[in-house]
Amino acid sequence: QVQLVESGGGLVQAGGSLALSCAASGNIFSVNVMGWYRQAPGKQRELVAFITGGGRTNYADSVKGRFTISRDNAKNTVYLQMSSLKPDDTGVYYCNADLRGGWGPLRTYWGQGTQVTVSS
Q1: What region does 92 belong to: left with phi over 0, alpha with psi -120 to 50, or beta?
Q2: Contacts for 87 with CB less than 8 Å, ≥ 6 apart
């Protein structure tokens, strides 16, 4: 059984930094794109950043230059380093991975979410 387990997050003042990590575990055959989404209260979930297996990255305009996504393919882990945080970055952050578990088809898995709160 495949699961994504996130760690990191918490409370930080505006201008500060936080790091998130998310590890995929279980019977995994291959991992394609991994990414991070966030959902602020009363808003829809939105893409923050994603990274392909080959290392190509893409960021939401709102986080470009402040957030960095990376991954360790050997550990099936994706990271999000967040700096110069703003109150608008507050929300629940979810990791996401397109992967094949065992001999199954490619499908999308989600982490349980971790809260990030940026105080002004």
Answers
A1: beta
A2: 14, 118, 119, 120
